[in-house]
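Priority: low. Protein: Large ribosomal subunit protein bL28. Input follows.
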Amino acid sequence: MSVRCQVTGKKPGYGNQVSHSHHKTRRRWLPNMQTKRYWLPSENRWIRLRVSTKGMKTIEKRGIDAVVADMRTRGERF
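Result:
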């Protein structure tokens, strides 16, 4: 399963971990991903989304129906 938010599209960030001696190794910063179930009242069913915590705040602010409508226009599957 990919580490990508279905609502916001957040993905891992890449870069270098720099030690005290300035030795560099590659690393990645993962978004805070959660699997959450939402009740979709317009379709009278539950949907399961893999969202970041920022995506959860977006759903709380805009509403699940508006977010699902945007996801459908982008072609996102859930």
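The mean pLDDT is 95. Residues 5 and 51 are 5 Å apart (CA to CA).
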